[in-house]
Amino acid sequence: MRFLCSGCYALFLALLIFIGQSSPSAAQNAPEKAALCASCHGQDGVPLDPTIPVIWGQNEGYLYIQLRDFARGARKNDQMAAVVQQLSKEDMQALAAYFSKQPWPNLGQKAPPSDIVKKAEAIANSAQCPQCHLGGYLGAGVQPRLAGQSQTYLRKTMTDFRSGARANNDWMTALLKTYSDADIAALAAYLAGF
Ligand code: HEC
Ligand code: HEC
What we know:
binds heme C; mainly alpha
């Protein structure tokens, strides 16, 4: 490359990068597709409604499995069913990678009163929630992050697991069947404020 001036070399590199990008792939289209998601999941990662989960900064493997399960009908939700109809497997993988790299938003949910914390901790320790959802409830891979998730959503989705309305994980359903509404409410408040 000695025959090129430094400025020309930079131009050459820029051209190579440009050529590399000019064949569109699912990964390159992800930010464009992600704009579709912002109308519900939020422009800045804060969902527009408390029944809608945070997906910014959620774990990649978990995000992909949920999109796949909505597409297969294993997890049922009318809004998400309509969304995933427009996505290929490659789009779902690219969107999972894209959203997992965004910063988790702070929903500003405070820790609940100490009696609720005590109740939730007792349940969590006996059910070994942190064994799967890991330290700080940050999860990893296909285990979802629970810390700081929307309280209303957490309560709804745990109730849905319990009733079988969310039927894409038999293990979570079996576990939550053993809990009362008050147990689930305490866990949701605890995890939201974690
Ligand atoms: C019309 C509103 C709407 C749009 C648009 C939308 N979502 Fe959702 N999404 C929801 C709702 C509501 C839920 C919760 C469903 C439930 O309660 O089971 C959800 C759930 C999810 C979940 C499961 C998260 C978890 O913690 O389990 C993922 C992943 C997801 N959406 C990704 C996306 C992506 C990616 C897009 C854009 C391609 C998108 N959504 C567009 C409303 C929407
Ligand atoms: C054996 C491992 C394991 C244990 C123990 C466990 N979980 Fe889970 N949990 C999972 C997996 C895996 C998923 C993802 C299921 C899926 O793909 O839909 C999940 C999903 C969830 C979700 C849904 C998150 C979302 O974004 O929709 C909540 C809430 C949850 N778990 C709460 C708990 C609580 C509370 C406990 C303890 C009482 C617990 N889990 C114990 C493995 C576990």
